[in-house]
Amino acid sequence: PTEKARLTGPTESARLGGPSAPALLTGPPDQLHLMDAVSSAAPAVARGTDLAAGTNGNPPPPMGLAIFEPTYEWQELSPSAILPAGLDVELPLDGSARRARIPRKWQLRSWLDDNHGFWRHADVSRTTTMGMLRQSAAQHTHCDVGSITLSLDGALLSDESTAEEVGLFQRMKELRVTVGAATLSQS
């Protein structure tokens, strides 16, 4: 069987070893460079989720690079893929195709305000509903769940919507949390 090394989450520097060839993932979490001993080229670059092409005022990716659209299923990476931070990445040491996916469980973090600080929901998965997230935010803020609303692009999210349906992993920085009359945002 092929031996594979695995990285999960943002990492500043991690060395991968194995019988075939070592690989190295270095750089700050918002701009990771993937290098291997066989090739001196950087076949993949990982960038933060806020660097989607042409969205939120960000520039499109550099010429020749493609934005990787993650899902909860393993997908092969093109050599020039730009990856959002926080993905599960499979790096085969035998030179076969690299793969990535959204982790089965990931953490949603949001700065609410000076009174409430950071709100964290540690176990977001593809089936996590917006109702579950509202309950978590209500517990954190010590407010009634009815006073909490979640929205993306100005549209309220229904309690039945799942993280996968609304693309929350890719759009977590756009999430708006409203407590009563005050709007609290991820940024």
UniProtKB/TrEMBL annotation:
Q: What is this protein called?
A: Uncharacterized protein
Q: Which InterPro entries match?
A: Ubiquitin-like_domsf
For the region Disordered, what residue ranges are annotated? 1-27
